[in-house]
Amino acid sequence: MNINKLNRQSDEKANITSQVSWGRLLLGIIIMLVLPAAILFGSSGRLDWGMAWIYIGMITAFTVGSRIIVLRKNPDLIAERAHFSDKGDIKPWDKILNPLVAIFGITALIVVGLDMRFGWSPKLPVMVQVTALVITVLGYFLTSWATVVNRFFSPVVRIQRERGHVVVTSGPYQYVRHPGYAGGIVSNLAMPLMLNSIWALVPAILAVCIFVARTALEDRTLQEELEDYSDYVVRVHYRLLPGVW
C-alpha cells in the first residue's frame, strides 16, 4: 500500500514537472542572474569591482540553490512561478505594486553603478561594507528559506485554490507572517551600503515602501480569503518584524 502511494506521488510530481515551460523557466533564471551583472558593470564602466562580483556570486548561489531544492521538494511551485503571468486571479493592486518593486530595484543597481563611476558617495569604511554584506546575505537567506518552505510562494498575490492553498506555519513562518518580504527589505537596504553607494538608498527605500504596502495588502487578502489564516494571525502576531509590526 505504501509502495503504491509512493508511486502515485512520484507520478504526480512527474506530471507536474512536465507542465513546466523549461524554456521560460531558464530564461527567467538567466535574466535574474545576468541582468544585475549587466547593469552593475555596464553603468560603472568597469569589471575590476570585487564587491560587485561578490554580490553577483551571492545572487547566483541563492537563486540556483533555492531553485534546485524547490524543484526536488515542490516541483508544482516551479510550475507556478514559471507561469504566474498567465494567471487570471492576480489581485489588481499587485499588477501595479509588483512591477514597481522591480523598477526601483533595477534603479538602485543603476545608481550604484553610476555612483562607482562618478564617485558621488564618500568612500565607506571597509567594516561598513562587510557588515552590509553579511546583512545582505542574511536577507537573501531568509527569502530563500521562505521560498523553500512555502510551496505557495508565488511571485504574485493570489489565492491558489487549484493547488489546494493552505496556511504555511513552519520554518520562518513561525516567527513572522511574511518572511520573504522581510528578507527582501533587509537585502534592499543593505545592498547599497555593501556596494558603497549612499545615493542608491533612495530607490532602495522606495522599494521598501512598496514592500510594506504589499505586505499589508497581501495580509488583508489572506485574512479575508484563505481558510485558517485568521487563526494563524492570532498565533503569529507580527507581519515583518517581531515586536514591531
Explain what the structure shows:
The chain is mainly α and 245 residues long. Helices cover 69% and strands 0% of the residues. It has 9 helices and no strands. The protein has helices at 2-18, 22-44, 50-73, 75-82, 94-118, 126-149, 179-194, 201-225, 229-235. The longest helix is centred in the middle third of the chain and has 25 residues, at 94-118. The model is unreliable at 1-12 (pLDDT under 50).
Which keywords apply here?
single chain, mainly alpha, Four Helix Bundle (Hemerythrin (Met), subunit A), disordered N terminus
- Helix amount, in percent? 55-70%
Biggest sheet statistics: none
Total domain units: 1
**How much of the sequence is in beta strands?**
under 5%
Structural class: mainly alpha
Instruction: Return Rg in Å.
Output: 19 Å
CATH architecture annotation: Up-down Bundle
In total, the number of strands is 0
What can be said about this structure in brief?
This protein is mainly alpha-helical and 245 residues long. It has helices spanning 2-18, 22-44, 50-73, 75-82, 94-118, 126-149, 179-194, 201-225, 229-235.
